[in-house]
Amino acid sequence: MDMDGLEERMLALRREIRAASAVNDPVRVRSLRAELRQAERAWEETLDPPPLPRPPVRENVHQVLTFLGVPSATKIIVSVDEAFFGGMLVNTQLSSLRRDEEKSFRSAPNARPYYLCAALTAERLSPARGLLAISTWAAPVRVVGPLSLRTDFLTTAVRIAERVRGLASVGENPVVAFRLLTQLAQNIPGAMDDFGPADPAAVVVAAQAELAVHQEKDLRQRAAAAERAARQLPEVNRLFGAGLKTARIA
User: Fold this and answer.
1) What's the whole-model pTM score?
2) Which end of the chain has the least Cβ crowding within 10 Å, N or C?
3) What residues are paired with 118 via a beta bridge?
């Protein structure tokens, strides 16, 4: 029923309530008032429809991390979500996410198909501050060594540049996407020739060139640390580190 119809129905119900009250019919009055409240709620919803339900935060974060493929900080997760996935996330939503995921895992291990877990430092196998990963990733991917922040940054730049190339078909937020890519490109030698928006193709070439220098050594370090974690740590600590304390990484 449209708003005009609802308004007419509410007027009619009020007249019927007055008539039922006049003949001292409380049962009829209660029934009509309940129907009136229902009509009023329908009118309010027509005037101001409720917002569409948002997917849970963890699903949005999982979507972004799956796209990036490497452990990532809250800031880049939120930025990528804004650029490509509708901008549903804010920093404050992610502040306690890893703690909540660990508590869930400890109370019912492996009850979920995936967990948003910590990236572990290669040296101490402790949770790296601010970096989120996905539990289903291979163990070496979830470990960060001395070179990992740089190689993961370069990998992130490549993924974003390749996605920006397809923005015409993606149809998300090109302004935010190009701004994010340009910010990343400013920290990659040879990725930009001037101060204008970054060229996605140039970013890919420059980032992959630097990756070729560091990636093999980084992969060896990560694999060795992952093997050590498999020998030394129970499953919950392989995902979330030793307790909830975090370690800074250089």
Assistant:
1) 0.75
2) C
3) 132
Residue 52 has pLDDT above 90, yes or no: no
Residue listed under structure tokens 């404050």: 92
Strands of 62-221 (E only): list them: 72-73, 116-121, 127-134, 143-144
For tokens 């660990």, the residue is 102
Paired tokens of 40: 């009023």
DSSP 88: -
Q: Are 142 and 133 in contact (CB under 8 A)?
A: yes
- CA separation for the pair 71, 59 (Å, rounded): 16
Kindly report the backbone phi and psi dihedral angles of residue 181, in degrees, each rounded to the nearest multiple of 5, phi listed first. Answer: -60, -40
The alpha carbon of residue 23 and the mean position of all alpha carbons in its chain are separated, in whole angstroms, by 60
Comparing CA positions, the residue from 227, 61, 216 lying closest to residue 139 is 227
* Residue pair 131/71 in contact by the 8 Å Cβ criterion: yes
Tokens of 31: 């029934």
Is 50 exceeded by the pLDDT of residue 201? yes
Average pLDDT over residues 165-177: 71
The position carrying tokens 């940054």 is 153
- Do strands 116-121 and 72-73 pair parallel, antiparallel, or not at all (unpaired)? unpaired
Tokens of 235: 């499953």
